[in-house]
Design brief:
The chain has about 325 residues and is α/β, with parallel strands linked by helices. It folds into 2 domains: about 130 residues, Nucleotidyltransferase, domain 5, CATH 3.30.420.40; about 170 residues, ATPase, nucleotide binding domain (Nucleotidyltransferase, domain 5, 2-Layer Sandwich), CATH 3.30.420. It is built from 8 helices and 13 strands. Helix 3 packs across helix 8.
């Protein structure tokens, strides 16, 4: 019977979980509303029950190789989730300690969601066979993962590689971390919305965005407008790609990657984000790296990306 890994992605709204084969096929999946469980012990209990029911229904008797978890502010070394702003449990949550008794024979790994996506790209996606690359996840914020010599860079406390929280404009936009001018305040789903409103304030031309309240504007609407030729949307992506490309040029000098992968909602804009990012990346690269770093889309199935990324740590750490 085919071996399976359990992948769990803990989001602020829902926790998704699934059974994944070594070649990246999601056999079955389910979800649990994260916010419905303010008591963490109850959450872990309900999560474990839901996963066991999924196994019994979809793959009874299948050997489970391990449980991989992706979560915001997760510490790989400590098996904890630490001070995650969008989760109902505050402080340091001993996730692996609480979950492991429900799966006593399974190895478990927890890492942050962007690093999970990075491992997923290496195991299942377009980074297979690469030893040195960077993954940028463009969602509500900007997540990132760095692989050097075939190993994910974790750092002393497993919080290394947070490119989204490098300051690119001191005194600039307020970030959720409490500082000003972090990269993710400019390059993210929320960042590009802020950019559109700045452009509207600085120009007088007509635009469909002028009738949209800020809280109703989404990166998806901006992407659709760009694809339809809206000049404000195209300019917003140009500005976003400029800042991302410049930041990636600095990141390249640190790890010398073969490729940079863009993943997430903004990456769906295609040429509108890839073209300016690639142009400004190459324009700002040191001569040693110029035209030698590939900018590529993710090869992970977008619908199952979170589950795949979480499960990938099991296959990756098993080798």
């Amino acid at each position: 019977m085919e071996k399976l890994a359990i992948g769990i992605d803990i989001g602020g709204t829902n926790s998704k979980f699934g059974l994944v084969t070594a070649d990246g096929r999601v056999v079955a999946q389910g979800s649990l509303p994260t916010q419905h469980y303010p008591d963490f012990d109850r959450y872990v209990e309900e999560l474990s029950v839901a996963i066991r029911q999924l196994v019994e229904k979809a793959a009874p008797g299948a050997p489970i190789e391990g449980v991989g978890v992706g979560a915001p502010n997760a510490s790989f070394f400590n098996g904890t989730i630490e001070n995650a702003a969008n989760l109902p449990w505050k402080g340091i949550v001993p996730f692996i300690e609480k979950l492991s008794p429900y799966f006593p024979e399974c190895p478990m790994f927890v890492t942050n969601d962007a690093k999970a996506a990075t491992i997923g790209e290496m195991v299942y996606g377009n980074a297979r066979g690469m030893s040195d690359f960077i993954v940028i996840t463009l969602g509500t914020g900007l997540g990132s993962g760095f692989v050097v010599g075939g190993k994910l860079v974790l750092g002393h406390r497993s919080f290394a590689g947070e490119l989204g929280h490098t300051i690119i404009n001191p005194g600039g936009r307020v970030c959720g971390c409490g500082r000003h001018g972090c990269l993710e305040t400019y390059v993210s789903a929320t960042g590009i919305c802020r950019t559109v409103f700045n452009l509207l304030a600085d120009h007088t031309e007509a635009s469909e965005f002028r009738g949209i309240p800020f809280n109703d504007l989404t990166s998806e609407k901006i992407t659709q407008a760009a694809l339809a030729g809206d000049p404000f949307a195209i300019e917003a992506y140009e500005y976003t790609g400029k800042i991302l490309g410049e930041s990636l040029a600095n990141a390249v000098t640190v790890t010398d990657p073969e490729a940079v992968f863009l993943f997430g909602g903004l990456a769906k804009a295609g040429k509108y984000i890839f073209e300016p990012t690639g142009r400004h990346l190459n324009a700002n690269l040191h001569p040693n790296y110029k035209n030698r770093v590939k900018l590529l889309p993710s090869g992970i199935d977008g619908m199952n990306a979170a589950i795949l990324g979480a499960s990938a740590s099991i296959w990756h750490n098993a080798h």
